[in-house]
Design a protein that fits this description.
91 residues, elongated, 2 helices, 45% helix
C-alpha cells in the first residue's frame, strides 16, 4: 500500500472463501432418480411450552395486570374523596 492510500477503503474483488467458486457436482450415477428432501416435522406443543408464555405474551399480561391494578386504585381513591366531600357538605 502506498502512503497516500492510508485511510481510504480498498476497492476490488473480495479475497478469501467468498471469491472462490463452489465445488463441481460429484461424479455419480447421472441417471439416478432424484428424491425430494424430507421436510422437518413440526414439534407438537407440549404442556410445558403452554405453561411458559412467550416473552411478548408475558409482557402484555404484566401490562394488563398493572393497568387493572391502577384502575382499581384510582377508583378507590376518587370514591373516597367524593365520599369525604359529601360528608363535609352534610355536616
Amino acid at each position: 500500500m502506498v502512503m497516500a492510500d492510508r485511510g481510504k477503503p480498498r476497492q476490488g474483488k473480495r479475497q478469501g472463501q467468498a471469491a472462490t467458486r463452489p465445488d463441481p457436482p460429484s461424479p455419480g450415477n447421472a441417471m439416478a432418480a432424484k428424491t425430494t428432501p424430507q421436510k422437518a416435522k413440526r414439534k407438537s406443543a407440549s404442556k410445558a411450552s403452554k405453561a411458559n408464555p412467550t416473552p411478548a405474551a408475558a409482557s402484555a399480561l404484566s401490562m394488563v395486570a398493572q393497568n387493572l391494578i391502577n384502575m382499581v386504585v384510582v377508583s378507590a381513591v376518587s370514591g373516597t374523596v367524593l365520599l369525604g366531600l359529601l360528608a363535609a357538605k352534610h355536616f
